[in-house]
Amino acid sequence: MFASTPAIIHIDMDAFFASVEQARRPELRGRPVVVGGRVERRSVVATASYEARACGVRTAMPVAQARRLCPQAVFLPTDMSAYTAVHHALLELFGRFTDLVEPVSIDEAVLDVAGSRRLCGPPRAIAGRIQELVYDEHGLACTLGVAPNKLLAKLAADLSKPAGVGVLSEADVHGRLRALPVGRLHGVGPVTQERLHALGLTTVGMLQDVPLPFLAAAFGRAARPLKQLAFGRSLSPVRPIAAAPSSMSHETTFVTDTAEPLALRAALLALADELMARLRGRRYAARTVALKVRDSTFHTLERHTTLPRATTSTRVVYAAATGLLDAVDLGPRRVRLLGITVSGLVSGACQLTFDDGWKDLALDEAVDGVRARYGRHAIRPAATCANRVSLC
Ligand SMILES: [Mg+2]
């Protein structure tokens, strides 16, 4: 194995609950949206869209106060099951780039992509790709921070909100970081910040430079961890979710909407190819194949079929998806997005019987082998087409 430099990506969804509401109700886009309970129940704001924040509305503010500040805002109840569904879909999306995905909260996650360079490119490029995919597939904005560890990655994201991609390196610890207020460090809460200010320590640079004994006189044993924070040091590893995925999916958005059968089939082939390579890489086989079709008007339909037995074969999944597409009556509509989801996953990928087609199996394994050695784009199906934007 080759040594890899640490590469952490922190992903923070922008105004998550409000953005999910705006994504599923286009009439709310560009308008101030406040998600929270009801005024009569004296609840507080869970999330405010950036349009509502412009009026001064903040998270945890009483809804009644938010109404006074921004009477024109659309106030919505919290729909936790909808946000949780999107959260899970996002974790699946992040999982296309690495197995090391740690959900931090419903709207934040950390990824370790050190081992993903070969297949997916450098960490900064992966971050940009994730940002695009999150927008293409869910209509949501997110901010990403790229750094050698979790602490710096979170800070990089915090400094780049909203909709940014921030990068912090070890060198920045002795540069950009020094001018930041100490309160910017994740782990320095309001109380600690106040105590640091009382000692005249207002910036990260000051905290870096202050002699440890001076700090220890005020903070005791907490002095050393505080210094570590100031130098952006964190040894905390990414702790991935252990549970096996219930499904895996891949989607693509066309550059221009199309109804051309050949283009649609080519896209399905590319999707099946990408998805099944990932499935095989994680040693799963799938029993159910679902097709998602979104047309130009954003109307989405889903069809699924269950296979006679679990498969790892690209060809079998492609054939199933094509069968599902053929059964869809598109009429005069054009297709904007196609997606394939496989579910009913079983582990131990190669538990195939002879009639599953050993040729398929041998071909898939040969393709996976070439890609493992020479990169993902070294080999691809001949019929895939160029009118697609969102394959990772
Ligand atoms: Mg957020």
Biggest sheet character: 5 strands, mixed
Q: For the largest beta sheet, what order do the strands appear in spatially?
A: 5-6-1-7-8
What's the helix-strand series?
EHEEHHEHEEHHEHEHHHHHEHEEHEEH
Q: Whole-number radius of gyration?
A: 24 Å
Q: Which structural class is indicated by helix and strand composition?
A: alpha+beta
Number of helices: 15
Shape: globular
Overall pLDDT confidence? 87
What is this structure's SSE topology?
Elements: E1 8-13, H1 16-24, E2 33-36, E3 45-48, H2 50-53, H3 63-69, E4 74-76, H4 80-94, E5 101-105, E6 108-112, H5 117-120, H6 123-138, E7 142-147, H7 150-158, E8 165-167, H8 170-173, H9 190-198, H10 204-209, H11 212-219, H12 223-230, E9 247-258, H13 261-281, E10 284-295, E11 300-311, H14 314-326, E12 335-343, E13 346-347, H15 358-374
Parallel strand pairs: 2-4, 7-8
Antiparallel strand pairs: 1-6, 1-7, 2-3, 5-6, 9-12, 10-11, 10-12, 10-13
Helix pairs in contact: 4-6, 13-14
The protein binds magnesium ion (MG).
Description:
With 392 residues, the chain is α+β, with helices and mostly antiparallel strands. The chain has three domains: 1-168, Reverse transcriptase/Diguanylate cyclase domain (Alpha-Beta Plaits, 2-Layer Sandwich), CATH 3.30.70.270; 182-230, 5' to 3' exonuclease, C-terminal subdomain (DNA polymerase, domain 1); 247-378, DNA polymerase, Y-family, little finger domain (Dna Ligase, domain 1), CATH 3.30.1490.100. The protein has 15 helices and 13 strands. It has a five-stranded mixed beta sheet with strand order 5-6-1-7-8. Strand 10 (284-295) and strand 11 (300-311) form a beta hairpin. The longest helix has 21 residues, at 261-281.
